[in-house]
Design a protein that fits this description.
This protein is mainly alpha-helical. It is about 60% helix and about 0% strand. It has eleven helices and no strands. Helix 10 packs antiparallel against helix 11. The longest helix has 25 residues. It starts with a helix and ends in an 18-residue tail after the last helix.
């Protein structure tokens, strides 16, 4: 994990300068916040590693890598605009470190991870979103650990409200025409991810109280990636 999130990997994208070092340290510190159980440095490293594997499919691989660094840099389960705030954080943090055109693309890509609805022909979006959603295609035991970690991040939310919010997220993802866009991964990952989510959804529905409910206090629904 260290090499993927270390300063050398960052500097290859944003240069080696005092400003760059300060920004890298701030980004790593954000990903290390104690309330994170899944959306932490290990998740960042996983997304970066998969983005590297899929880099040949991206139009601008470095924009995708930078977007990975920032896609959950702000992660607060008690608000519903973390992706938008993360995009703004990317815009501010990268100013002067990379060209403005790349900053704009990074911002766009970060916003895309809010719903993972990638338009046809969006190569950069396909790589980032496929990497972000790779966990859904994990072996069953790893998927269960992921789902458990997400529940821990929402420990402040009562069970009934969490279940309703998580059901909504899973239904939204299962309703997408395709979870994965890249042929290199889709054939293997798509059926496995759908099976994992369908199993979780079935379990959650069996626990849901009659009438259900929405996620509490305007909090963001329990996320997927």
């Amino acid at each position: 994990m260290g090499d993927l999130v270390g300063f050398e990997a960052w500097a290859a994208l944003a240069g080696d300068s005092p400003t760059s070092r300060t920004e890298w340290a701030a980004v790593v510190r954000a990903w290390s916040e104690p309330h994170r159980r899944y959306h932490d440095l290990a998740h960042l490293a996983a997304v970066l590693g998969i983005a590297d594997r899929l880099a040949a499919d991206a139009a601008d691989p470095d924009a995708v890598r930078l977007a990975a660094w920032y896609h959950d840099v702000v992660y607060d389960p008690q608000r519903n605009d973390s992706e938008a705030v993360s995009a703004g954080r990317a815009r501010a943090g990268l100013r002067g470190l990379v060209p403005d055109e790349r900053i704009a693309e990074v911002e766009r890509l970060v916003l895309l991870t809010a719903g993972h609805a990638v338009e046809p022909g969006d190569a950069n979006g396909a790589v980032l979103c496929d990497a972000d959603l790779a966990v859904l295609a994990s072996p069953a035991e790893s998927y269960a650990a992921y789902a458990s970690a997400v529940r821990e991040e929402y420990g402040h939310v009562p069970d009934e409200a969490f279940t309703a919010g998580r059901i909504a997220v899973l239904e939204q993802l299962l309703g997408l025409p395709r979870l994965y866009r890249l042929p290199a991964v889709a054939e293997t990952w798509e059926p496995r991810a759908r099976a994992n989510m369908a199993a979780e959804l079935s379990l959650l529905r069996s626990r849901a109280a009659p009438g259900g409910g929405a996620s509490a206090n305007g909090a963001r629904p329990p996320g997927a990636g």
